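An instance as discussed:

___
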Amino acid sequence: MIAASACWVAALLPAADSALSAAGAEGFQKLDVSYYLFVDQEPWETSSASDDSHAYLNVGVGLTSTDDSDSGDQEVDFDEGWGIPIALGYHWDREAGRGITFDAEIEAVYTDQDAESDVQELTVFGVLLNGIVNVPVSHALGVYGGAGIGMGWLDVSTGGGLDGFEEEDGPFLAWQAKAGLRWWSSDSVSWNVGYRFLNVDDAELDDDASDASFDLETRQHMLEIGVRFRL
C-alpha cells in the first residue's frame, strides 16, 4: 500500500508543478502594468535608456512665479507667468555596479510675466551650464537634481511714473537649481516633472531726468513638465 501511494505521489508531482507554473505565469500577466514598470526589476538589472552614454535634447514648458521686488521706494508685484526651458546635453553611463548617472547640459530658459506696478512686464532669457545627478528608483522611474550657472538678460517694459527710465538689460550673472522625477516611456524618450529656482542678479533701472534709480530683483520659481529625446 505504501509503495503504491508513493508511486501515485511521484506521478502527480510533475503535473502539479506544471499547473502551478501556469497559474503563476497567468497571475503575473494579470498584475497591473505599473508594477512591472516601477517595481518589478532593479534599475541596474535592466536595459533602459539610462544604460549607455548618449546625447539628448530636452524640451519643457512651465508656470512661473516671480518673487516681488522691493528696492528702496519701488515695489514691483509680479503676476504668474510662463516659461520654456530647452537643453542640449550628454548623459554619462553609470559606473559598473552603481545606479547613479550624471548629465552635463547647456540650457536656454525663457520666461515672461506681467507686473502690477510701474514695471508692466518682465521677460528673462538665460543661458546656463548645468550639472545633473540621476538616481534610479525602479526600472523606469528615477529622481534627478542639479544646478547651473550662466548669464541672463532682462527686457523690462515700464510705464506710469517710470516712463523716463532706461533698463540695463544685461548680461547679468544667473544661477539655478532644479529637481524632479523622470519616467522612461521607451529606450529613446523620457518625461520629467519638476521644480526649478532661477535667480538673475539685480538690474539697475535709471532715470536720467531725475537721477533716480532702483534695483529690480529677479527670483523665479517654475513648475514644469518636459520630454527628453535621445539623439
About this structure: Residues 2-30 form one domain. Residues 25-36, 38-50 have pLDDT under 50 and may be disordered. Residues 2-29 form the longest helix (28 residues).
